[in-house]
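User: quick one, sequence for these tokens?
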């Protein structure tokens, strides 16, 4: 049995998946489910909108333990099912993962793009009208239109799945399930006091390292001088072919992959230099530790 699902949730200009991670978004106190669409196999898609407690009760009528749950970007909908409603299905399916595997990552993997590419229908735009609106802010007519929009997304997802499934290797579906299971059912345990202690130590160490380098602003901003600083620490400064001059140049831009990799260099002194070059107050080690601290506090 395949249950296709799609959640519509509250978002605004600051609180959205374009600003924060899925984990942060779903576990945030501002999170709210506006409504949900559910389709069992080839059956009719149902729409429901209620409080979180009412939605949890409504969802309980489905036999999740016997079902493979399908969505487009199941990391999102699966996280909501698991973390907010305690649903643990038999397995996970995802048309976003399938589409990326079949069509590649160079083209858009959005439901809108895939629906157009495979000629299965058009994705609506009702979600654009939901910006900044809580469930209580919708009129009955607006909520009904939003429900139709959501049900259409469910139908598109199921149609897309049937097309992609025909030639999709079963072993790859198992990989998708395993990947999603690791996200929706995390088992890592974080030691909050240890992380907070580590963050203090990292900040103190970085400050001492920056002082020890005695690097001036001129040295940090000059490509040649910065390259020399890296060389003195045993790092081969990254190069690239400049698209402007077509000649070899230093690859020190924030978007240069080789330079970005130095932010995670095993030598803390290199991390500190790269952070200083970017004008950042934090190193990769600090931001990573802080992220784990935040995750630990959210549970």
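Assistant:
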């Amino acid at each position: 049995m395949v249950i296709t699902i799609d959640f519509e949730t509250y978002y605004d200009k600051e609180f959205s998946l374009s600003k924060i991670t899925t984990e942060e978004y779903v576990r945030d106190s501002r999170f709210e489910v506006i409504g949900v669409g559910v389709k069992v196999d080839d059956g009719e898609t149902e729409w429901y909108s209620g409080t979180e407690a009412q939605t949890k009760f409504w969802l309980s009528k489905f036999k999740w333990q016997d079902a493979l749950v399908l969505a487009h970007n199941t990391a999102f909908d699966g996280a909501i099912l698991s973390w907010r409603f305690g649903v643990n299905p038999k397995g996970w399916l995802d048309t976003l993962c399938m589409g990326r595997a079949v069509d590649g990552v160079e083209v858009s993997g959005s439901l809108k793009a895939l629906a157009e590419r495979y000629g299965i229908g058009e994705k609506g735009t009702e979600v654009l009208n939901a910006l900044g609106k809580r469930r209580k802010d919708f009129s009955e007519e607006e909520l009904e239109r939003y429900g139709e929009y959501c049900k259409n997304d469910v139908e598109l997802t199921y149609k897309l799945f049937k097309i992609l499934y025909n030639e999709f290797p079963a072993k790859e579906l198992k990989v998708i399930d395993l990947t999603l299971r690791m996200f929706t059912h995390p088992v890592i345990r974080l030691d909050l006091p240890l992380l907070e202690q580590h963050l203090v130590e990292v900040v103190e160490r970085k400050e001492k390292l920056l002082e020890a380098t005695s690097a001036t602003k001129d040295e940090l901003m000059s490509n040649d001088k910065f390259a020399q600083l890296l060389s003195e620490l045993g790092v081969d400064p990254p190069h690239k072919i400049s698209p402007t001059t077509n000649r070899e140049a230093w690859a020190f831009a924030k978007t240069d992959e080789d330079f970005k990799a130095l932010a995670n260099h095993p030598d803390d002194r290199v991390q500190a230099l790269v952070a200083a070059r970017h004008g950042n107050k934090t190193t990769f080690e600090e931001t990573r530790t802080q992220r784990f601290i935040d995750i630990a506090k959210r549970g």
